[in-house]
Write a structure and sequence with these properties.
The complex is a heterodimer of chains A (about 775) and B (about 160). Chain A is an alpha+beta fold and about 775 residues long. Chain A has 23 helices and 30 strands. In chain A, strands 3-6-1-13-10-11-12 form a seven-stranded mixed beta sheet, with helices on both faces. Helix content of chain B is about 35%, strand content about 15%. In chain B, β1 and β2 form a beta hairpin. The chains are: A alpha+beta (about 775), B alpha+beta (about 160).
């Protein structure tokens, strides 16, 4: 029963671009052609003369009518740097990145608004720009924010365990570096919304592609200077999100436009704008030393990671926040003595940085996977052997990791063993040697990872607490509400399955409602879906089940302990023919609950109200401070062949073993795995946001930012283990991000293995054909030089 | 300049008045209210706006509406019969060849044309992948889409098709 999917395949989606309101006007933004420039003047006269233009909004309007974007994460601590920029949704004085919106045209139709946008005359004084984090941190660099003494937004320092002891114990250390290029999550649908300001009630309703309506309401209300109670955000069908539809920012301008014009105002982001304005992700430079024993025992890490954050995030402080998990994640699934990790975030003249599948934890995980593979090579070990030597063992859970994560459960050796069973490792290694003799380059990559999921962090909006409501309506069907928007990840069917299993009800009668800001929670981010909202739904459904049992016992005149439910009926286990359908039960309970049917005590306690709102919060976070609750496990093995002449990487075989605890819907999980893996392959081999020397974005469309097509995407073999999490209500674990992490790591490792004959170290992504060719040519040049 | 345009859309003859520079995508979405035709890149790269023009899949964002005067246009809405999903749609639901659903209607139209064209012949994974390369999907990794297309082909071969 896939109600939503059936609706969507039949073309009945209701996406942001499909929204229509009577009297609706259309908004189009004017973007900056410079990455850094003073705005000298904005002349809207010509634009306003075009018939159909209603109004032009500029940064001055934002200053006059709105508040600066609100702070969403703030971590001041002695010895740390944490700066926040004071910015409005549109600037009035200075642009800081290519494509930054400086004006918004509102017109009767979109075409007119687009034409008028070209008529807005803006005079800029271009300034030198910085487009690279490492350069931005030098004293000569242009400054992005005039009131900051330099471009360093964040500098965090962490000591996990005992790093000095780790290095004292070491037989050897190894210098490791790792660079990830800048990427765009790029769901096929850009962002969009319709804002409807109601002047009579001074209230604001916004419908659109909101991944996290509850957070969106908080931020838009703060910007608009309105009480949150007067603002409602409703998610419509969302054409993919991956984190990119969490932030609200241009939406504030759309809201203001509706207020100033008194009209419903629609904004549908053009794809080029979506490319330019992002948010973007990754773009990090790792450098450090890893300490280990000669037998392969890992001991410690001392490393630094520099992030190119672009400008201050529109989710103020949230880009900077991603540096926390980046620094914590390297401990991963292995045992360590200690780590010292410093995370630096530099602002540059690039678009801002925000969530994209992985958010920050991915960076630490990919780095450590690469570093461990270097150690294995140095010691002449296989990548699997070094992992088996250092895994946390199945009998050690829950495991308090040095980074303070309380890891719930798993069987790491079994996960990797399973993957190795699916690939003929010896056979492929022999084949690699054979092909090498013919000048062909086969490579085998191995990667294992855990995925910290279900975030709860103090001092920021990702606080954790989540609410869900499960009710039986008077017609006997079920309504489910939560903060978990459906972004294609199977939220609706998963919620329905959870509630249906607990209540013994067919999915046809369970209606998972579209998400609005009415329900508290941060929505599906950081793989929270299967942790927080799913747990809240399960908890509410279990409480509701108790009420159903109480009511049914009274109505059926049987003992509560004898009541069970299945297939839409509530019945006596002793006499199954003594039963009520949910419709009959609900009808009696809602409309004819008189004392002759129900126990008066039930009525006094209102236990006949078949409507439960429950909240859920991690059982581990309060006592331990663990910012994540579940940790799914995955092992990836990939075999690739790199064509030396073209630099093209062909994926010969790909296997993935996953342990996400209790599986709620296998098809949904497999879909998440497939999609994540292909996105990771895209990052590993093709995707790169490139800029010119003035920091202007060159990759502004699918024609020069290459996401995998059906041709690049390989077939993927999947196997599952099921080690339930003791900490979530259903035993399931968040799992949306592990696949993109493991696949990027494993493909880069496999490419390096394929190029082992050249001695090439693949520590820069993407390993695009151009770059692979460049690496090969450089090596050949060096070798010739030596000859 | 306004120009009269006659089309057969999903079997119905329609007379429209369009601008000379209006794309077929714009006409289908705005004048014919066919919202399964999704707008994304508007430059022929993503395939979300794929429709059939005289049974051939095209990116409707790249087609000037006036250039297909008199043509027969089919969209995902046209595959639905008596409010029942077309067997190809059923296959996409069964195999979960859909996640966010945004690319799906365009993907379906390409796949529908592909299956119709391969009447009586076998459809290999490789050929399906080659045929769908103009329709980008960011969610599914294409694995279940390929499965869905094979399932749809089986549906057709078993006579479950229209």
């Amino acid at each position: 029963m896939k109600k939503r999917e059936e609706r969507l395949v039949m073309g009945k989606g209701q996406y942001a671009d499909d929204l229509e309101f009577a009297g609706m006007a259309h908004l189009v933004f004017v973007g900056s052609p410079y990455a850094h420039a003073l705005i000298r003047s904005i002349n809207t006269d010509k634009a306003m003369t075009l018939p159909g233009v209603v109004r032009v909004i500029t940064g001055q309007d934002m200053v006059q009518h709105t508040h600066p974007l609100p702070v969403q994460a703030n971590f001041k601590k002695p010895g740390w740097t944490w700066r926040l920029a004071n910015v409005h949704a549109m600037p009035h004085d200075k642009v800081r990145w290519y494509g930054e919106p400086v004006a918004a045209v509102v017109a009767e139709d979109e075409e007119t608004a687009r034409r008028a946008a070209d008529l807005v005359e803006i005079v800029y004084d271009p300034l030198p720009a910085t487009g690279n984090a490492l350069e931005a941190l030098t004293p000569e660099s242009p400054r992005v924010y005039d009131d900051w003494e330099d471009n360093k937004q964040v500098h965090l320092k962490f000591d996990f365990g005992d790093p000095d002891k780790a290095f004292e114990m070491a037989d050897q250390t190894l210098r490791v570096t790792y660079r990830e290029g800048r990427v765009h999550g790029l769901p096929i649908e850009p962002r969009g919304c319709v804002a409807v300001y109601d002047g009579k009630n001074d209230a604001l309703d916004i419908w659109g592609s909101f991944q996290t309506p509850f957070l969106a309401r908080h931020n838009i209300a703060a910007t608009m200077g309105m009480p949150e109670a007067k603002v409602k955000i409703s998610a419509v069908d969302i054409g993919g999100a991956f984190g990119l539809k969490i932030h609200t920012w241009k939406e504030n301008v759309v809201a203001l436009a509706s207020k100033l014009t008194g009209r419903p105002v629609k904004w549908m982001e053009p794809h080029r704008d979506f490319m330019a304005t992002g948010p973007h992700q990754r773009d990090v430079f790792w450098e450090g030393d890893i300490a280990f024993k000669n037998d392969g025992t890992l001991l410690g890490l001392k490393a630094q990671v520099v992030h190119d954050l672009g400008v201050e995030s529109t989710n103020k402080g949230i880009a900077a926040l991603s540096i926390f998990p980046a620094c914590s994640a390297p401990a991963s699934m292995y045992k360590w003595i200690g780590m010292h990790i410093e995370g630096i975030g530099a602002v540059t003249n690039k678009s801002f940085y925000c969530a994209y599948r992985g958010y920050g934890k991915d960076k630490g995980l990919k780095f450590i996977e690469s570093a461990i593979n270097q150690v294995a090579k140095k010691l002449g070990m296989t990548p699997e052997a070094i992992r088996f030597k250092n895994f946390i063992q199945p009998d050690e859970f829950p495991f308090h990791q040095i980074n303070n994560y309380v890891i719930d459960s798993g069987d790491y050796p079994a996960t990797l063993n399973k993957a190795m069973e699916m690939v003929d490792m010896d056979g492929f290694r022999k084949k690699k040697a054979d092909l090498e003799k013919q000048g062909r380059c086969l490579g085998i990559g191995v990667s294992t990872t855990i995925e910290p999921a279900g975030v709860a962090v103090p001092n920021c909006q990702m606080g954790g607490i989540t609410q869900a409501r499960v009710m039986i309506t008077p017609d006997g069907s079920v309504e489910v509400h939560s903060d978990r928007t459906e972004i294609g990840q199977g939220a609706e069917i998963s919620h329905a399955t959870i509630a249906g299993n607990i209540l013994g009800m067919d999915l046809a009668h369970i209606h998972v409602k579209k998400v609005t800001s009415d329900y508290i929670g941060q929505g599906p981010l950081s793989s929270r879906g299967a942790v927080y909202p799913a747990s809240a739904v399960a908890k509410a459904a279990k409480l509701l089940r108790k009420k159903v049992v109480q009511c049914a016992a009274g109505l059926l005149m049987v003992e509560q302990s004898d009541v069970d439910m299945a297939d839409g009926f509530v019945f006596s286990t002793k006499k199954p023919e003594t039963r009520l359908s949910y419709r009959e039960l609900a009808d009696k309970v809602f409309f004819f609950p008189g004392p002759r049917g129900l126990d008066p005590e039930i009525l006094k306690n209102h236990d006949h109200l078949l409507d439960v709102t429950a909240t859920w919060y991690s059982p581990t976070t309060p006592d331990t401070g663990s910012s994540y609750t579940t940790f799914c496990v995955s092992a990836d093995i990939a075999v690739v062949e790199v064509d030396v002449d073209t630099g093209v990487t062909d994926i010969v075989k790909y296997v993935h073993v996953h342990d996400a605890g209790t599986i709620i819907n296998r098809q949904v999980i497999d879909g998440q795995i497939h999609g994540g893996i292909i996105q990771g392959i895209g990052e590993a081999l093709y995707e790169s946001l490139d800029y010119d020397d003035q920091s202007r974005l060159l990759s502004t469309s699918f024609s020069n930012y290459f996401i995998p097509t059906s041709i690049e995407a390989p077939d993927i073999e999947i196997a599952h283990l099921e080690t339930p999490s003791p900490f979530s209500e259903t035993g399931s674990k968040g799992m949306g991000e592990a696949p993109i992490i493991g696949s990027k790591a494993v493909i880069l490792d496999a490419v390096e293995d394929a190029l082992s004959g050249f001695g090439i170290r693949v520590n820069d992504s993407p390993a695009s054909p151009e770059k692979v060719r460049q690496w090969i040519l450089e090596t050949q040049r060096k070798t010739k030089g030596e000859d | 300049m306004k120009i009269p345009l006659n089309l057969t859309i999903n079997g119905d003859t329609v007379e429209l008045t369009v601008d000379a520079n209006e794309t077929l995508l714009h006409v289908l979405r705005n004048s014919a209210s066919l919202q399964s035709v999704h707008r994304s890149c508007e430059e022929g790269e993503c395939g979300a706006c794929t429709v059939l023009v005289n049974n051939e899949p095209v990116n409707s964002c790249l087609v000037l509406a006036v250039s297909v005067q008199g043509a027969s246009v089919m969209t995902a809405e046209g595959l639905v019969r008596n409010n029942e999903p077309h067997p190809i749609m059923k296959a996409f639901t069964d195999e979960l060849g859909i996640q966010c659903g945004f690319c799906t209607p365009g993907m379906l139209m390409t796949a529908y044309a592909l299956i119709n064209r391969c009447e009586g012949s076998e459809l290999t994974d490789e050929f399906i992948r080659k045929s769908l390369q103009g329709n980008l999907c960011r969610c599914t990794g294409y694995v279940n889409i390929v499965k869905a297309v094979k399932k749809a082909k089986q549906n057709k071969d078993a006579g479950y098709w229209w």
